[in-house]
């Protein structure tokens, strides 16, 4: 009878028999593995103290399975709902003030340890639906729980991504950008009817007049991994980008078929290439884990470098499993007056503005300022 009474009291505490308060806080705690207690046969544990006096709390617990959650609340803190998600609905358990809590197991919430990445956005959407909120109020994650108590004791107002529709508040203005950038935003990519196909044996240029093939000449370094090619019609020159080994920027004169090396990239792996005729600059963006490593190479031998972390691009980490895989490249589109327009496309997206996820950014090269100008999510 005592166990039944305690279980009934927990149900009352969790709000199953009373209406929800108007301003409930939702806090998420993620633990991969718990700490083994002295009893070898007991479940590994994670201890959480919720210290929010005067607040109604919804608590979301995420784990990697086989875990006993020990939840405590300070005086005046009211926990009205708990949900727990993990690999199985019966391989972990939740205790609130030492009393087992039932009916809290749900499936399908991703286990994440930082507020970045595609899985975190899935988590936010799922929790928002379940808990009837447009934001979570804090997130904490630990791959391994140790002796340190996990505390839920404050609202995080700094991490923008805790809100469901956070990108709408991250949009920057384009009114003061150079006219070249604003024209691209209004009309999309021109292209001029030219396309470049770059492979290990040479470059093909397709125009309204047909396709020309330019086999690589033996007096330039071997092409290891061709990445991108662009055509400068005013100069009648094709520029090609490779990575692997040193990596190179090549040029091909379409009038003579002559190949030259503009510069060695010295083991810098680049994924995007733009040629700006006004400044005679070749502009590249980084590959793999460094899409914000932007370098410029002048035909006069000048060069510069700017590095912007992935997390400084609002919403870029939403497009991939941040921390576990490489994100999409930032493709340079237009450059003018130190401003560079960049585009990132989600998986399976062909080109802006087709359906699917995309992000458009403006970067000021001399200050590393980043503005999110356009975005769409599936």
Biggest sheet strand order reads 8-5-3-1-9
Q: Got a strand count?
A: 25
Query: Can you tell me the residue ranges where pLDDT is under 50 for at least 5 consecutive residues?
Result: 1-13, 15-22
Number of alpha- plus pi-helical segments: 3
Helix coverage percent of residues? Answer: under 10%
Span from first to last CA? 52 Å
Shape: elongated
- Structural class by SSE content: mainly beta
Description:
The protein is mainly beta. The chain is 9% helix and 40% strand. A hairpin with a 4-residue loop joins strand 15 and strand 16 (248-253). It is elongated. The two termini are 52 Å apart. The model is unreliable at 1-13 and 15-22 (pLDDT under 50).
Features:
single chain; mainly beta; 3 helices
What's the short story on this structure?
With 378 residues, the chain is mostly beta strands. 9% of the residues lie in helices and 40% in strands.
């Amino acid at each position: 009878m005592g166990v039944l009474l305690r279980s009934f009291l927990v149900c009352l505490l969790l709000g199953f028999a009373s209406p929800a308060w108007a301003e409930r806080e939702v806090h998420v705690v993620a633990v991969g593995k718990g700490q083994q207690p002295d009893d070898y046969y007991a479940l590994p544990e994670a201890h959480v103290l919720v210290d929010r006096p005067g607040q109604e709390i919804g608590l979301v617990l995420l784990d990697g399975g086989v875990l006993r959650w020990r939840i405590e609340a300070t005086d005046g803190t009211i926990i009205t709902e708990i949900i727990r998600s993990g690999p199985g609905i019966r391989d972990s358990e939740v205790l609130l003030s030492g009393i087992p809590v039932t009916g809290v197991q749900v499936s399908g919430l991703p286990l994440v340890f930082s507020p970045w990445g595609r899985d975190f956005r899935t988590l936010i959407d799922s929790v928002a639906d379940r808990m009837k909120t447009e934001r979570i109020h804090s997130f904490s994650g630990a791959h391994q729980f140790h002796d340190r108590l996990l505390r839920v004791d404050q609202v995080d107002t700094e991490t923008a991504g805790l809100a469901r529709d956070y990108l709408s508040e991250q949009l920057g203005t384009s009114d003061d950008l150079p006219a070249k950038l604003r024209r691209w935003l209004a009309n999309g990519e021109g292209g001029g009817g030219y396309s470049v196909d770059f492979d290990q044996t040479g470059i093909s240029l397709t125009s309204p007049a047909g396709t020309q093939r330019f086999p690589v000449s033996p007096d330039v370094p071997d092409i290891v991994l061709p990445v991108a090619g662009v055509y400068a019609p005013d100069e009648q020159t094709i520029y090609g980008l490779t990575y692997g080994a040193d990596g190179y920027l090549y040029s091909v004169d379409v009038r003579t078929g002559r190949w030259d090396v503009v510069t060695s990239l010295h083991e810098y792996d680049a994924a995007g290439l733009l040629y700006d005729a006004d400044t005679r600059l070749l502009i590249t963006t980084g590959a793999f884990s460094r899409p914000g490593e932007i370098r410029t190479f002048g035909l006069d031998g000048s060069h510069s470098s700017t590095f912007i972390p992935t997390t400084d691009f609002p919403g870029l980490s939403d497009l991939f499993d941040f921390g576990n895989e490489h994100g999409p490249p930032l493709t340079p589109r237009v450059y003018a007056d130190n401003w560079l327009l960049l585009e990132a496309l989600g998986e399976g997206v062909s080109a802006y503005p087709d359906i699917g996820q995309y992000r458009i950014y403006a970067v000021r090269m001399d200050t590393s300022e980043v503005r999110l100008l356009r975005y769409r999510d599936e």
